[in-house]
Amino acid sequence: MSNGFMENSVVRWIEHRLPIFSFIDHSVGSGYPAPRNLSYWWNFGSLAGVALVIMIITGIMLAMQYTPHVDYAFDSVERIMRDVNHGWLLRYLHANGASFFFIVVYIHIFRGLYYGSYKAPRELLWILGVVILLLMMATAFMGYVLPWGQMSFWAATVITNLFSAIPLIGESIVTWLWGGFSVDNPTLNRFYALHYLLPFVIFAVVFVHIWALHVHGSNNPLGIDTKGPQDKIPFHPYYTVKDLFGLGVFLIVLSAFVFFAPNYLGHPDNYIPANPLSTPPHIVPEWYFLPFYAILRAVDFDFLWIVPAKLGGVILMFGSIMVLFILPWLDRSPVRSAKFRPIYRQFFYIFAIDCVILGIMGAKSADGNTFGMTNVFISQVATFYYFAHFLVIIPLVSTLERPKPLPSSISEPVLKGGGSMAGATAKPMEKA
Amino acid sequence: MAESTVERTQDDEGEDRRDFLYLAAGAMAVVGTGAFVWPLVDSMNPAADVLALASIEVDLSAIEEGQAITVTWRGKPVFIRHRTAAEIEEARAVPVDELSDPESDDERVQQPEWLVMIGICTHLGCIPKGQKAGEIKGEYGGWFCPCHGSHYDTSGRIRKGPAPLNLPVPPYEFLEDTTIRIG
Amino acid sequence: MPKSSRYGRKALAASLVIALSGGLGMALESSPAAAAGGGFPFPEQSWSFDGVFGTFDRAALQRGFQVYNEACSACHGLEYVAFRNLAALGYNDEQIKAFAAEKLIVDGPDDEGEMFEREGRPSDLFPSPFPNAQAAAASNNGAVPPDLSLMAKARAGGADYIYAILMGYQDSLPESVLQEIFDLRTAENEKKYKAALEEYEDRLDAYQDKIEDGQTATEPVKPEKPEPVTSVEDLGLPDTAHFNAYFAGFGIAMGQPLYGDDVEFADGTEATIEQQARDVAHFLTWAAEPTMEERKRSGIKVILFLIVLTALFYAVKRKVWADLH
Hints:
The complex is a heterotrimer of chains A (432), B (183) and C (325). Chain A is mainly α and 432 residues long. Chain A folds into 2 domains: 39-283, Cytochrome Bc1 Complex, Chain C (Up-down Bundle); 290-401. Chain A has 17 helices and 4 strands. Mean pLDDT of chain A is 92; it is low at 417-432. Chain B is elongated. Chain B is 31% helix and 23% strand. Mean pLDDT of chain B is 87; it is low at 1-6. Chain C is mainly alpha-helical. Chain C has a domain at 3-26 and 299-324. Chain C has helices spanning 9-36, 58-72, 93-102, 133-138, 151-154, 159-166, 175-212, 273-288, 292-322, and strands at residues 104-107, 116-119, 242-243, 251-252. In chain C, the strands form 2 sheets. A two-stranded antiparallel ribbon of chain C has the order 1-2. A two-stranded antiparallel ribbon of chain C has the order 3-4. In chain C, helix 2 packs across helix 8 and helix 6 (159-166) packs antiparallel against helix 8 (273-288). Chains B and C meet through helix 1 and helix 2 of B and helix 9 of C.
């Protein structure tokens, strides 16, 4: 923050009583030193924050026009689209914003996986991030129910029925979730209440997430700790302006969808009002849930006569997120960045491809074939690999792999042009 | 600055260019934010379907002389009174320049026996008494607002109390002798 | 940008781009396949509202409205469209009042507590032809004619699909398409026959084994070899269904709605089946999203603005970072 600003008498009066300006300065201002080598992959954290704000703002405006009642929900959404001033813009921003929120967050997560951002001392930071992901999923799911179209209704039915897989108390839990004996008005009402509440819970967890981030600062592409002031630059103006540029690009892509392909990521069936007596022939979740949907459907066999297929699928689906919680302890490599971990890097890419395959399988019908194999079989292999990656490959690779030598500091390769950086000599550096 | 003049000029040019960039980017960002906020604000204005529900038709034939009815138009009560000759006379007799909101009775009615106006006190939005037979009509025989004691006369004009204006007359027209369309 | 951070970025970028496009691709692919659901793949049409700069053709909209109003509205509602919305088609207030007044709207209750019918007003929504879904089903052999307000958004393919369905009855279908459908069904039948034949042979073996063991068993029935499909009747559609090439399963409850000259266009255009189908598809696309033109117009402005803003941010970013390199 510039000195001139802090010398202003009003600012000083406030600052003396509530040090909000130095708080901002130490959070995202010149008082927050960040590693000087953060790449554009580090833009996605702040982008996710902006996406959350866009979702909350458009969501509040939509909530003022929406009616959470089974008889009026669909009509009120159409009224927003047709009669409310700029209502179509609000709704399309909110619907596509959800997709883009997930795109940004998934990139953010994969960046963390590649550069080892989950490792000490950032384990809690990572765990808070996974909590945010879980909350986002719950919020997105309940939001998708609100328009009360065919996909809304059947998504609500299918997903709430997952809980019926829990032995003994499953059925009671589902009845409790529904507030009745099927997805109906009480369900819609509580989903609306929670869909309004959860984003603020997310906001709070994001706050703690950022707090944890500021304790040890950002990880960086080299994955080594900052050694001194020569390794750092102030967040403002360097990263604020870089984040603004990234935000501009993000908004262009989001706008392209909102204005020119607003229903591209949606499903036509959700423009048919919910009909509890007729399931659409091919129900799919929103794209960001497809990999998890594939894992759910992959389990079509009972496991050891103890775990029925239905429960197995649910356990694995939730397990696929839960495994992220223990990731910091599964990976024992002292080296963070995959840049210096040649073997882990290969497995990272295979894992990314595995997630794409799961996504593709999630979109295909369960009884189909791809490349001469049944979709269920492909899903099973991909699901197996998903868990093997975390539970077998990462622990093994992290102990057996011989990492490349690390540079002694961030500023060394930066200031000396990278020539002295181990492992980089074989490949000429690109022009920055 | 301690540099030579030549260096200073170059520096200034560089700084000018930079300042211009900052200013342009900042200004555009402010404009962009405004352009984003406007649709949000405007979405709270009445929607097209609300604006479209503009007019209602009312059949007056059942209203006896001296009686009044209340109908709803745009969610507001509209008072329609079939005035007696005495009431009309009383309303006409008032000198206009003595009124706090000067308006002659002729300006407020299309046909003297029918007084049509929005029944919302111009003070703070309560609904004045005086429509039903037994209700208090205030000191001037018209309407009386119980919230803060505003008195309206037989032409719906404010005569006493905190209300600043006469009861407003909505746009209406006579379709037939005993049918009006409000809005 | 510090040089070191470029290291290995490309590969990461590539994998994420693949991941994202894979996801998007799936979303795209899953939709048409789902909605087509066994109908013959319908051809893509070219429309004036296609693309970034696309707008509706007012003349086509008016003709399409005429088709809806005079041919479709007897069975299909348009419950989210109000008469006042017709102003967007280029009609003036008097014309809109006249259209509204043609329809009877149930209103009330009146002072006696009774519901009554009155002439429509511009603020009214198009009345549904049936009071409820049960009444609609009862008068249409059990099938409820869907409301058309959102048809163009509720079916993959939108206007293309609507046009295809209207052109998908036997009369207006090219012989070649008909033949392809017959061939398709013939191949399907033969595949089924082969599977049935294999099952039959297995059963026959089991039956003969049992007979040899002296057990009683019923002899399996040999499946009949299917005749090649050569006519619509051979498709084996249910009695209540009408053949339609583009509808799922080739059988649609709606009888052929357009025969040509079903309406007399106010602008003198010849009312062929094709013309009417095209125009009503155009109209229904508008009905599904009357704000489309506004959306595209704002989109162009917003994106141009954002491109300039982002370029400025980039320039500022370069300037700010220049002293670091």
